[in-house]
Amino acid sequence: MEGKVPQFVIPAPSVVALPVAGTDALFPVRRVYCIGRNYAAHAVEMGHDPDREPPFFFQKNPDNLDPSGEFPYPPKSTDVHHEAEMAVMLKAGGTDIPIDEALDCVFGYALALDMTRRDLQGQAKKMGRPWEIGKAFERSAPVGPVHPVSEVGHLSEGAITLKVNGELRQEGDLNQMIWKVPEMIAYLSEYFELAPGDVILSGTPAGVGPVVRGDVMEVAIDGLGAMKVRVV
């Protein structure tokens, strides 16, 4: 019947939403796409040739995004790595988006970490299996507040770093991305129908490495400030 309130057979999942910096508003999350090996030096340290590989993506789940400032060390792993990234939040989408129109889809940017059960990911790679067991576990993507484009502009260059307990581990520049933000959006839209609320994790520079309980990670990007995350 028109206008009838739907009756769910189980409680409906809550909408995953992230704080928008400087406001009480929230950014609702629909999907999370992650590009792999998007910095040349990181591709090399992972044993690949960045000049010969087209882009590829894997996915995390919306509720993997976690703004709490804590990262619970996950089960079934003894080798969990940090990967500092910039997250791109979309306000619009579509299919076959032209590169020169792609930035019009961006609402804002945020600091993020793509935490990885490297040992489980490695096992999956050897067996030709998907990566979700190594990438899409609970709270595997610590994230900071969303900074709107209206406040910070579009970020195409600037330092990206990660420290663990004050020691510099990762250092790069956003301009070192092999596939830039407009290209990522355009490429994804050839294979998926992008939509408002989609998030893209844009890759990590070289220097990924393990963390243990008690470590404090600090990721920073010029224009987005810094974010500390404690491993618990």
TrEMBL record:
Sequence ranges assigned to domain Fumarylacetoacetase-like C-terminal in this UniProt record: 32-232
Record flagged with keyword Transcription: no
Pfam short name (any one): FAA_hydrolase
GO molecular function: acetylpyruvate hydrolase activity; metal ion binding
Superkingdom of the source species: Bacteria
InterPro entries cross-referenced by the UniProt entry: Fumarylacetoacetase-like_C, Fumarylacetoacetase_C_sf
Keyword Protease applies: no
Keywords carried by this UniProt record: Hydrolase, Metal-binding, Pyruvate
Protein name per UniProt: Fumarylpyruvate hydrolase
